[in-house]
Structure prediction request, 164 residues.
Amino acid sequence: MNQAIVESKKAIVSEITEKLKESESAVIVEYRGLTVKEVTELRRALRDENVEMKVYKNKLSQRAATEAGFEELCENLTGPNALVFSKDATAPARVLSKFAKTHDKLILKAGTVEGKVVDLETLKTISALPNREGMISMLLSCLQSPVRSFACVVKAVSDSKESE
Prediction:
């Protein structure tokens, strides 16, 4: 085999390995049967959430998954697959699940979340979670609730004292 081709393949494997290790979340999806228009629509939705989708050869993806310590992913790397990477742990699963609801040809297979291999059921559970900003907003509202309630009680007491 030509040395340039070997070096090119090694570079691709190291690229995939690096992306798998650096990403908070990576998902394997099968896109067989989607039209070019649908794939473009999916890529646009992913890009809006800062999620990257790339198509690699399965053999190279399997080698990269093994190098990254995610050997369990190799069994899902058959057929026409795309790998979806993100720094956000919930974004890929959320966007892909939403898209799959209206496009039944898109099939989520497995993935990694925060360094652990997860199955389809876990991906579906994660897809129901809000993004990072949504989670922070929910946390802040929980923290504000007792303070708001206390302020309302103090105001009610103050109003009752003024009316007397």
Observations:
- The first helix runs from residue 3 to 22.
